[in-house]
Amino acid sequence: MRQKEICRMQKSKVALKEFWTFRNESRKKFTHGMHKYPARMHPEIAKNIIAKYAESKRTIIIDPFVGSGGVLIESMLKRKNSIGFDINPFAVLLAKVKTTVINPKRAEFEYQKILEKSKRDYQRDKFYPKLVPTDFDVEFWNKPSVIKKLSILKKHIFKSKDRKMSNFLKICFSLTARHASNQRRHEFKHWRLEKEQLKKYRPDVFEIFSDICETNCNLMASFRTTMRGNKTKTVVKFGNAVNLSDNFNKINSEILDDAKRHLVITSPPYGDHSTTVAYGEFSYHSGSWLDLPVNRLKEVDRVGLGGQRYDVEMSDLESPKLISQLRAISKIDTKRAADVYAFFFDFDKCLEELSKILKNKSHLCFVVGNRTVKRIPIHTDKILVQLALKYGFKHIVTYPRMIPTKVLPFKNAPENISNKSGRMMNEERIVIFRN
Ligand SMILES: C[S@@+](CC[C@H](N)C(=O)[O-])C[C@H]1O[C@@H](n2cnc3c(N)ncnc32)[C@H](O)[C@@H]1O
């Protein structure tokens, strides 16, 4: 981003907030728009942060909570090597596909061939029950004809020997399985269509697959054109952010040897898997259709940041802000206070891990949300600044931004009483540090 522009806007908080909101900028350019994923970071955030803080050619970008891989795509576009980790196997596959350039013309040829064979199989009344997942109630979530058609598509997609191509088609298949299922389109949690809607619902699986493949081939075509001559390397691995240094040591790649500086750009979970953004729940059905490891899919929300409560006394994480907010929540609900503590306990570990691996003069950018627990606002950005201090991270600046589009409701029911709602997040903070 233009430095002068930021300085000018620093004077006007409203203009600054509006700048980082990117209200009119598409979130679906290039391969960004290939598949839904909860709480995706706006690509313009990563783009602007890279432009500002990755001056050296040999800066590598790290995203310990890579999700659908948006930060890595922007790194590639800016010719920066990058590494991403996630504990969600579906996210790992999605991020890999979105950062792997393939020939869209070949993909188009492949998907049309698959479609042709699948339609023929369906006319001949073929069905592959062994390819239907058994890890969830498929009949509850899909109409019988949908199950049949998905099993046929899967059979042909999984046959392909070209791994990059079949991964690309698997992601198209995943979105098809989602859109053709009885799942409500705009919900990330498992909500089935209403009875009346279900009666009228007649999804055409092959048409949905065809449309999704066509869209994704076009997105890949624009990404490929922009990436021409670009030799940037990207690594995406399964890994927990609280073991980041171990994960890092396991990477056997020249990217690491070549690095002069690091730049961390990441949006950690907000800390509310159980109530709102459940990455595991979102990924479970399509992950099962894709034969991803079910035990790992099942664990995502439990193992994720703050997913486990610790059976220990709440120790001092050296954040006076956190302590005062925990005290306030404890007075209302000690269990919820323990949840909040668990989230920051894990977050603190992640900061410690980052301090072990980052080169000197590296920058870190966290996009966090200030959620409300029991009507008490949790100032995640301010707590983060206090936690980071003990690991030698100097706070540089915090930018506020609005969340203009959001699948989640802006209101929830904090006491689980209907008609009694509370505000949820509609703002985020972009918090920047240097080590
Ligand atoms: C807000 S999302 C990231 C979204 C991403 N920036 C994007 O644009 O798609 C947070 C991600 O953190 C992952 N996650 C949660 N806890 C984790 C942990 N302890 N280690 C690694 N990943 C974790 C979730 O699976 C989820 O994909």
CATH superfamily of the largest domain: Vaccinia Virus protein VP39
Q: For the terminal residues, how far apart are their CA atoms? A: 21 Å
Largest sheet: 7 strands, mixed
Helical amount: 40-55%
CATH architecture of the largest domain: 3-Layer(aba) Sandwich
Report the total helices.
18
Based on CA atoms alone, the radius of gyration comes out at: 22 Å
Number of domains: 2
Q: Strand order of the main beta sheet, please?
A: 3-2-1-4-5-11-8
Low-confidence stretches: 407-411
What is the typical, i.e. mean, pLDDT? 90
Q: What is the structural class?
A: alpha/beta
Counting DSSP E segments of at least 2 residues, the number of strands comes to 11
- Beta-strand percentage? 5-15%
- CATH class (first level) name of the largest domain: Alpha Beta
What small molecules does the structure contain?
S-adenosylmethionine
Walk me through what this model shows.
- The chain has helices spanning 3-10, 13-21, 43-53, 70-77, 89-98, 104-123, 138-141, 144-159, 163-180, 195-200, 205-226, 244-250, 254-258, 279-289, 294-303, 320-332, 334-357, 380-389, and strands at residues 59-63, 82-86, 234-238, 261-266, 363-369, 372-373, 376-377, 394-402, 411-412, 422-423, 427-434.
- By secondary structure, the chain is α/β, with parallel strands linked by helices.
- It has two domains: 3-101 and 233-269 and 304-434, Rossmann fold (3-Layer(aba) Sandwich), CATH 3.40.50; 104-224, no CATH class.
- The protein is globular and about 70 Å long.
- 43% of the residues are buried.
- The protein binds S-adenosylmethionine (SAM).
- S-adenosylmethionine (SAM) binds next to helix 4 and strand 2.
